[in-house]
Amino acid sequence: MGGLEPVLEQQRRVVTLLAADLIGSTALGESLDPEEVRLLVGGAVARMVTVAEGLGGMVKDLAGDGIFVLFGAPTAHEDDPERAVQAGLEIVDAVSAYGAEVERGWGVGGFGVRVGISTGPVVVGPIGAGGRVEYGATGDAANTAARLQAAAEGATVLVDDSTYRLVEALFVWGEPRSLELKGKSAPTLARAALERSEPASHRRRLDTPLVGRERELAAAREALADVLTGAGGVLFVTGEPGIGKTRLLAELRREFLSGVSPGGRPLWLEGQAVSYSDSVPYAPFRHLLRQWLELPTAQPLRTRVTLRRALEALLGGDATTVEPPLATLLGLELENDLGEQPPQAVRRKAFEAMEVLLARLAHDGPVVVALDDLQWADASSLELAEHLLVLPEREPVLLVLAQRVERGHASWQLRERALRELPHRVRELSLVPLPEESDAALLDAIAGRGTLPHELRSRLLAAAGGNPFFLEE
C-alpha cells in the first residue's frame, strides 16, 4: 500500500509526531565562535532532517536546534508509527556519531539529541495568516511529543503508550515510566525505544486464529513435507495488503519447526522487507543473517566477531572465503581487498557466498528461507533471491516468498520467471478475501462470541470485506 495523496484542506487525522531537540549546544556557544556554533548546529539539524525525510516524514518546524516532524500527514503510509520510531533511533545514532566528531575536532563533549514521539488525532492543514501560512498539526498528540522530548534523557527516544501499542513487537523497549508532563492533568505512560527488534519474525502474531485457509494450508503442508523429507522447492504466497500472508507464514513456521525431519534438525530463516527499505541494499537478507547469528543488536564489531565464529564453526577453513562477501550483505566495512573490486564482482561473490552458506546449512537438516513483503525489497535483494531459485534443485531448501499483487514490480517478475523456468518446483498460494462465515468466526475470536450488537457486528464485517487485518484493526 503506497503513500496517500497529500491534502491541502484541514482534516482530522491520526498522526505520529516526532519532536527532536539537540542537547549540548549551549556548551558549544560558551567555547566556540558563534559562526562555528552555527555551522556545527546546522550540521546536526541537517542530519536529523535527512533521516526524517528519508523515512517519509514531513519536517514541519525547524526551531533553532530542534525539529518537529509529522508521520501520516500530508502523505500517509500504512506504517507511519513504525517509521517515526525508526527515525527517532536513526536520529539518535546519526547525532551521536556527529557529536563524537565534534568532540574530536573541537574538544567539546556532551553534544547529542533527545527525541519524543506521540500518536493521536490531530487537525492538519494550513495554519497562519497573511504572508505566513504553513502546513501544521494541532492537537494533544503534538503537545505530548514536545513534552516527551523535554522529559527524555540524552540519546533517548521516549515514546507514548499510544505509539508503543502500535509498534510493540517491532522494537526493544525500556521499562514503562509514569511521567508528570507539563500541561497534562494525568500522568503519561512512556517507554524508551532502545533498538530494532530482531529477528523480523518477532512481529508475527499467533494469538489470532487462522481461519478460512484450509485449502492454502493443505498446499503449503505439501511443500513443507517435501523439504522435510529432502526435496527442495519454491512457494509463493501472494495477496492484497492485510489478506493474511504474514499470518500464514507464522503458521508455517510453527508447523515446520515441529515437524518430523529424517534429514536433521529443521531450520527456519526469515527476512523482512519494510516499506522504507527499498534504498537499503539486501535489507531482508540482513535480517535473515542476523536471525541466524542470533544477534540482538546491530553493533558492527559484535556482528563481525559473531559472523566469523559462526562461519568457522560451520565451514572450517572455507570461512575466510565466505566471510567478506557475507559481511557486505550485513553492511559491514570490508577488511580485505574485496572493497577494491568492481561492484559487479562484489555482488557476484556475495550471491555465491549466500548460496554456499545455505547449502552447507542444508547438509545438517532442511532449511526454509522465508522472505516477507518482497514487494518492498531493494533491487539487489531481488537479484539475490533470483540467484537462489536454483538452489532447491539440489538441496533440501524451501524458498517461501510472500508478496503483494503488484504486477508492475520487479518482485512479480521474479515470480513469473520462477513459474516459467521451474514449474516442477514452484507452488503458489494466492490468498483471497475470507468467506463470510470465516470472517464472522474471526470476529468472534477477536471480540468474543455474542459480545457485539448485531448492527455493529454487521457493519464491521461489511467494512472489513473479508480482509483479516482490516477486521482486526
Write up what this structure looks like.
- This protein has 473 residues and is α/β, with parallel strands linked by helices.
- It has 16 helices and 14 strands.
- Strands 1, 2, 3, 4, 5, 6, 7, 8 and 9 form a 9-stranded mixed sheet that branches. Strands 11-12-13-10-14 form a 5-stranded parallel sheet, with helices on both faces.
- A hairpin with a 2-residue loop joins strand 2 (58-63) and strand 3.
- It is globular and about 70 Å long.
Task: Give the key terms.
9-stranded mixed beta sheet, 14 strands, 473 residues, alpha/beta, disordered N terminus
Q: Averaging pLDDT over every residue, what do you get?
A: 88
Structural class: alpha/beta
Determine Rg (CA atoms, Å).
Answer: 24 Å
What proportion strand? Answer: 15-25%
Report the total helices.
Answer: 16
Low-confidence stretches: 1-7, 199-204
Tally of strands: 14
Describe what is shown at a glance.
The protein is built from 16 helices and 14 strands. The protein is α/β, with parallel strands linked by helices and 473 residues long.
Q: What is the strand and helix layout of this fold?
A:
Layout: E1 11-23, H1 25-31, H2 34-54, E2 58-63, E3 66-71, H3 80-106, E4 112-129, E5 132-138, H4 140-151, E6 157-160, H5 161-167, E7 171-173, E8 177-179, E9 188-196, H6 214-228, E10 233-239, H7 245-257, E11 267-272, H8 283-293, H9 300-315, H10 319-329, H11 343-363, E12 367-372, H12 379-387, E13 397-404, H13 410-421, E14 426-430, H14 436-447, H15 454-464, H16 468-472
Parallel strand pairs: 4-6, 10-13, 10-14, 11-12, 12-13
Antiparallel strand pairs: 1-3, 1-4, 2-3, 4-5, 6-9, 7-9, 8-9
Helix pairs in contact: 2-3, 6-7, 9-10, 10-11, 12-13
